Amino acid sequence: MTKFIHSDGFLAVIVSLILILLGYVGVSSASYPTIGFISIAGLATIFLAYFYPKYICYAIIIAAPLSINLTGISGGLALSLPAEGLLGLILLLTGIKLFAGLKYDKDLLKHPITIILLLDILWLWITCVYSTIPEVSLKRAILKTSFIFGFYFLFYHVFQHRSKGHSLFILTAVGALIPIIYAINNHAAYNFAQEDSFEMSDPFYEDHTLYGACLAFLVPYFLVFIFEQWKNGKFSFRWIPITLFTVILLFAEFLSYSRAAWISVFVALGIYVLTKFKIKPKIYFSAAAILIVAFVIQFGTIYQNIRSGNAQRKADSAETHLSSVTDLKSNASNLERVNRWVCAYRMFEEKPILGWGAGTYQFQYAKFQSNEFTTMISVNSGDRGNSHSEYLTLLSEEGFVGLLLFILLIIYSFARGIKLLIEEKIVKNKIVIYGALLGLITFYSHGLFNAFSDYEKMSIMVYGSLAIITLFDVRKHRATNHS
Fold first, then answer.
1. Are residues 376 and 254 in the same domain?
2. Are 88 and 146 within 8 A, CB to CB?
3. What is the biggest distance separating any 2 CA atoms in the chain, rounded to whole angstroms?
């Protein structure tokens, strides 16, 4: 009996009973058959999550693109189900197993990417204490912490087998197929018009920019997969389903009409071409630094021309839609982005160290607007989201330290990814490293124009890709030390 009390089975039974009791409370108004079905399904899920957690992780990957955001559950709480529900369950059970003595990988904890992420979590919670709206920041901190522990730490162990890293992209594609077909079918009813693209992916993706960004993350993996297999003479008819999906994916990406997503794909593919020349990371960083400095120096001059002309809200074709990315004179969306960026910087100037608190930008930025930068689509109410930039959102909400940690994450993940590609000889491994690195590049470049890291659909790919790079880096380090 004593042995059973200290076993995994006893812990699983206790947790199961607790969650089933909570289930009864939550559905007390339901019929007894419904309650019974929920209890049995919940118990089966808990059993699977506790003893075979990798299968629940695979289920989360598939479920993420299919999940629907539900708001107003309790006290304004919003959940994306079923993905976030499964994530919460597996994190709870993993925490219990760690308490019961589950072993963890010490090399993972010592890795620089892990250290940066842990420091990011620590700083996030510190800023919550000084947040201007603590309840908002607390929810955001819980969400981001669960994403990092679930999608980075857990996936690191799930992807331990050399071929498992591919599952992040393959299973995400499986889950995304239904939303893609759904969006294309909806869009077809409007003759694929650009002005009707904005809500075609709803309710799976809230708008076309999130939809486009998530698809953009997948595009490099599948293109590289096809090209590398063909280049090495390994392409065969059994890869026809992947090729077919790639064609559908590219078509869906085009129909998203998300300019930032299109650009992020071009940037990632450009990096892919450059990696063939085995350019060292410091060259990339030097070039990026020059571009950033040039932009900062010329920003004032560029903006002098913004206010001239009449702003318009949409382009008439894909070609003009893409070219409008650089049109600061006549595109209202671009003008509004500049307005948001200016507000974020002004917020940073007022609270440069601790920021205003995670998730608070949308509730605070209105008072930082000025007539010089407001546009025809500007509003004073706090209902229009973040600063349209991962970087400036962090700067305004978590101060200089929050942004610095994100930049360090970019630098190190990119540098390690490039080095791994240069050193890796196995084609299958190179493909998954390419998928992780180039996917992250789409996220980092897209982050200049939008901020989607708070969505599980994006975070699962971001932190999952970081886990893949960390895993291969740890494996390479161990092989070097034992040689």
1. yes
2. yes
3. 81
Whether residue 92 is found in the same domain as residue 118: no
Tokens of 33: 């058959």
Residue spans of beta strands (DSSP E) within 2-74: 68-70
In terms of residue numbers, what domain contains 37?
2-105
* pTM of the complete model: 0.86
Of 73, 105, 137, which residue constitutes the final position of a domain? 105
pLDDT digits (tens, 9 = 90+) for 54-82: 888 888 899 999 988 876 554 555 677 77
Long-range contacts of 270-275 (CB under 8 A, 24+ apart): 271/437, 271/438, 271/441, 272/220, 272/224, 272/434, 272/438, 275/418, 275/421, 275/422, 275/434
How far is 173 from 167, CA to CA, in rounded Å?
Answer: 9
Is the same domain home to 374 and 272? yes
Same domain, 89 and 234: no
One-letter identity of residue 32: Y
Does 99 share its domain with 110?
A: no
469 three-state secondary structure: helix
Indicate the pLDDT class of residue 131, thresholds 50, 70 and 90.
Answer: very high
pLDDT for 208 beyond 70: yes
Q: What angle do CA 212, 449, 461 make, to 5 degrees?
A: 50
Paired tokens of 96: 């219990």
Pick from 103-112, 232-241, 327-336, 413-422 the range whose average pLDDT is largest: 413-422
Same domain, 355 and 311: yes
Q: What angle do CA 248, 249, 253 make, to 5 degrees?
A: 115
> Alpha-carbon distance 105 to 115, whole Å?
14
3-state secondary structure 326-389: HCCCCEHHHHHHHHHHHHHHHHHHHCCCCCCCCCCHHHHHHHHCCCCCCCCCCCCCCCCCCCCC
Are 95 and 176 part of one and the same domain?
A: no
The percentage of residues in the chain with a pLDDT greater than 70, rounded to a whole number, is 76
Q: Which residues share a beta bridge with 371?
A: none
Q: Which of 59, 79, 105 is the last residue of a domain?
A: 105
Q: Give the span between the Cα atoms of 325 and 443, in whole angstroms.
A: 17
Q: Which of 154, 205, 156 is nearest to 467 (CA)?
A: 156
What pLDDT, on the 0 to 100 scale, is given for residue 171?
Answer: 93
